[in-house]
Amino acid sequence: MTKRERMRNVLANKPVDRVPVAFFHHFTEAGDWNMGLERAEAFERNIEGHRQALEVFDPDIIKIMNDTLMMMPLDVSFAEHASDLAAIRPMPLDCEYAVKQIELTKRVMEIYRDCDAPVYVTSFSAAWVLRNALILGLPVAGAQEPQMKRFMAEDPEAVANCLMRISEGIAALNRVLMTECGADGIYFSVANQAGFFPREFHQKYVSPSEKYVLAEAKKIRDMNIVHICGYHGHGNDLSLYTEYGAAAYSVAVNAEGTTMAEAKKLFGGAPVIGGFTQDGVIYKGSREEVKKAAWDILDNAGQIGVVLGADCTVPNDIDENRFNWVRDAAAEYAAQHPSG
Q1: Please, what is the average pLDDT of the chain?
Q2: 3-336 maps to which CATH number?
């Protein structure tokens, strides 16, 4: 099978010659994240990192890492009350951020020009974007986010409407990245780590904007993936996302304390991606230990509608030959378990 044929079969829950692998890591350090508009050198390293990685590992699934442009810039300096969020409008496609995101995507697409793997662009939900704008640091589990919490309490409808307007800009940019840049789909990062949004709030005020982005992407491509971010063990309630209608779900099964088989069942049989921890055996185990871990995952989940990956991004300094170890293990497993 070609890599594209293999992934198509995965998404259709059809047999494959071997289970594909999908491990991703950033190409810049955290201090350079979201700094692509200010630091030209970091922006270039972000792009060139893809080329250097390709020299070691020819991926089954390509995800364009937009480290330096992850979160859309959002001016919230004027926002004292939830009602002030009404001033936030959808991102225009001629703004500097969108223009640079398009440039990054086109240039990385050129790096992968001769690869036959499907290419995904990394996209973040409006909830990620707004929370990120309202704090210093990353809006992960345990972060102090008093302003966002206050807005949620003051006027949840104002928050929801703001998230939808932000999502309109996100969806419009994704449309360009797929139609003009040639990406095969979006790798859409969502999260509600440690239950930041109460379940009822998330369902009523957050998920509509996230479902909107996915629905708009689906009008263009049918290979879109939801990444439920379990960054460094920060768990999510996976059941919040079972009705998102993605082609596949990237799940942090270790952070959630579940298994790939259980996650696949939870999502109604939809394909799932994951299995490995971020910085455990895939990062520091021997080749035999990596093989055993891969086989254990496949023993649990089978080979239909499954992609081997990690809970989230693996360490930047990982030896990418280790991804080849996982791929070899998957091929060996398929040879010995031809029934799938």
Answers
A1: 97
A2: 3.20.20.210
